[in-house]
Specification:
The complex is a heterodimer of chains A (about 300) and B (about 260). Helices cover about 70% and strands about 5% of the residues of chain A. Chain A is mainly alpha-helical and about 300 residues long. Chain A has one domain (about 5-140, about 155-295). In chain A, helix 2 (about 35-45) packs antiparallel against helix 3 (about 50-75) and helix 4 (about 80-105) crosses helix 7. Chain A is globular. With about 260 residues, chain B is of the alpha+beta class. Classes of the chains: A mainly alpha (about 300), B alpha+beta (about 260). At the A-B interface, strand 1, helix 3, helix 5, helix 9 and helix 10 of A face strand 5, strand 6, helix 4, helix 5 and helix 6 of B. Strand 5 of chain A pairs antiparallel with strand 5 of chain B, so a sheet runs across the interface. Chain B: InterPro entries: CHP02186-rel_TM.
């Protein structure tokens, strides 16, 4: 069944789009990531123009994140305070990211830098998570408390930083400066690469700041929700590129998929969840790497220069 | 479907009447009369590509070719800037390298003829009138990252024709025009699903043994239907309101899904 998208200006298969958004929504709810890095390539593959794909995913990611965040909120696994501190940093970082994005575009090498950065990020984070979660799984015979918190040298510097806050849900008492820095970094990378940055935020909060995995997922969803709501308004305002019909289809599938994803995520052990996410990141990264390295079938491509909307 | 296919027969009937009503032209001058199955293609929510039928009638006598006309029909969509890019190997990676843009080139182009183009019109006419796809690509003003030499430029022209044909946006068909009798022909124009909006121009040329005997033009428009049009217009004119509306819709969807699936 085909339906015509008024802003993307092409027909798509309704069931295909809903199926894709169900799957991505499931993954999003399960891991607390936005899923934009999965959805964008899928939409572009079925012919949706990149700008419309990215802009119409923003409300869908927001919808999935909201459903997911509500579930975690009810389970008391969402740290609003931590989320707000991260967001404060994120806004600054996103501003810098947009500036850097335009700098690269002016230099004419935007696509190459983005593609390589994508592969590197997905590869490094996926690889690190894979090693860690495998190790954790192998250690599982030992009691939970026996897993020592390794105190890196940097840790003591962080401990001595001023402006300490207590984050009860996250069982954290620390200075806001590194958290603001983390938010800014994720915001910067997200704005440059056009992603929400959930897959960066989750592992860093888990491994560097030792926040419990369940709280990290809830908090990350909260942060994604706010970021994507802002992105929706910004995309609509700057380029009128949010497609109502496409976004509605994506939201329908995404918010239902996220429900099942959250439930599946709660049933799994933290290290299993991390292992699965690691494999997902590595396979998507691998897919991008193949695109970048393999000899293209046709070296030439045609693009219609965007008309001024 | 308020589709373009609908009333080809009705159009032909009306066309027959109009043709008959026309005052008789001087015996020598050839004339060409054209009619399209619809003047406007409306894109509604169920649009998935469409087709239009062009009817043409010749008046006058083919003088050279022993009583046979040949016809070439060219349909062109609104002009766009089409950019062709070529990937090149940089270290281990394939990265977009040189680009050449074709300015005011049609995103939609169909060249239909009653016999393969080369046997209907002379090569120099095909080039100067931009009758073939290659000639149309070649004739579009160039723009790009740097100056290309002739051989490279030709490669980009070929690539544009190839890629546009693969997308179903350009088409050259040497059997696309069918003569129903000596004077009346029919051609079907296939529109792709991701059709561009705006004014389309259909030019029909009548050939008498390689000599251009008559040339006539007819136009049609591709427009969005009510709902699609209103959404696109609102998104464009009331951007902030539309943006906040979409954000609210996202919240509503998320909340509904959460409420619907809540177990307790």
């Amino acid at each position: 069944m085909q339906i015509y998208l008024p802003i993307a200006e092409l027909p798509v298969d309704v069931l295909l789009v809903i199926g894709m958004s169900l799957a991505v929504g499931f993954i999003s709810g399960m891991f607390g990531i936005g899923g934009g890095f999965l959805m964008t390539p899928l939409l572009i593959f079925i012919g949706v123009p990149t700008a419309v794909a990215v802009a119409s995913e923003a409300p869908q990611i927001a919808a999935s994140a909201f459903t997911g965040a509500l579930s975690y909120w009810r389970r008391r696994a969402l740290d609003v305070k931590l989320g707000l501190v991260l967001l404060a940093g994120g806004v600054t970082g996103a501003g810098a990211g947009v500036w850097f994005f335009n700098l690269l575009r002016a230099a004419g090498q935007l696509e190459a830098v983005i593609a390589v950065a994508y592969v590197a990020l997905l590869g490094v984070i996926g690889g690190l998570m894979l090693t860690e979660s495998t190790r954790a799984l192998l250690r599982r015979g030992a009691p939970q408390a026996a897993a020592p918190k390794p105190r890196a040298a940097g840790r003591s510097i962080i401990d001595r930083m001023p402006f300490k806050l207590r984050f009860q849900r996250s069982m954290l008492h620390m200075s806001v400066i590194p958290l603001l820095g983390l938010g800014a970094f994720v915001g910067f990378v997200g704005a440059t690469l056009g992603i929400g940055g959930g897959f960066l935020l989750v592992p860093i909060l888990v491994y560097v700041f030792r926040v419990p995995t369940a709280v990290v997922v809830g908090t990350s969803l909260f942060q994604i929700l706010i970021t994507m709501l802002a992105a929706t308004v910004l995309h609509a305002y700057a380029a009128a590129s949010v497609d109502l019909v496409l976004a509605a289809l994506l939201m329908l599938g995404g918010s239902i998929g996220a429900q099942f994803g959250v439930r599946a995520g709660q049933k799994l052990k933290g290290e299993h969840l991390r292992l699965l996410l690691a494999l997902l990141l590595l396979s998507v990264g691998g897919r991008f790497l193949i695109d970048l390295v393999a000899t293209p079938k046709d070296a030439y491509s045609v693009a219609i220069e965007a008309k001024a909307r | 479907m308020t589709g373009p296919v609908m009333n080809a027969r009705a159009a032909l009937a009306a066309f027959g009447l109009a043709a008959g009503a026309l005052p008789a032209s001087p015996a020598q001058a050839e004339k060409l009369l054209l009619a399209l199955s619809s003047q406007q293609v409306t894109i509604a929510s169920n649009y998935a590509g469409g087709e239009l039928t062009l009817f043409g009638a010749a008046r006058g006598e083919p003088r050279r070719s022993g009583g046979r006309w040949e016809a070439v029909v060219r349909a062109r969509g609104p002009g766009r800037t089409l950019q062709v890019r070529r990937k090149e190997r940089v270290g281990p990676f394939w990265i977009n390298g040189p680009a050449r843009s074709f300015e005011r080139a049609p995103d939609f182009l169909a060249v239909l003829s009653s016999k393969p183009l080369a046997s209907v019109a002379a090569p120099e006419d095909i080039a100067s009138e931009q009758l073939s796809l290659a000639a149309a690509a070649d004739g579009a003003p160039a723009g790009g990252t740097r100056r290309l030499d002739a051989a490279e430029d030709a490669a980009f022209v070929t690539a544009l024709v190839r890629r546009q044909t693969q997308r179903g946006h350009w088409r050259e068909d040497g059997r696309g025009v069918a003569f129903l009798d000596r004077d009346v022909f029919r051609a079907t124009i296939h529109l792709p699903p991701d059709v561009a909006f705006g004014a389309y121009e259909v030019e029909a040329r009548l050939y008498d043994q390689g000599r251009l005997a008559a040339l006539e033009t007819i136009t049609f428009r591709v427009v969005k239907a009510g709902f699609e049009q209103r959404v696109a217009r609102f998104a464009d004119r009331e951007r902030l309101l539309y943006g906040f509306g979409m954000a609210l819709l996202a919240i509503a969807f998320g909340w509904t899904a959460s409420a619907a699936f809540r177990r307790d």
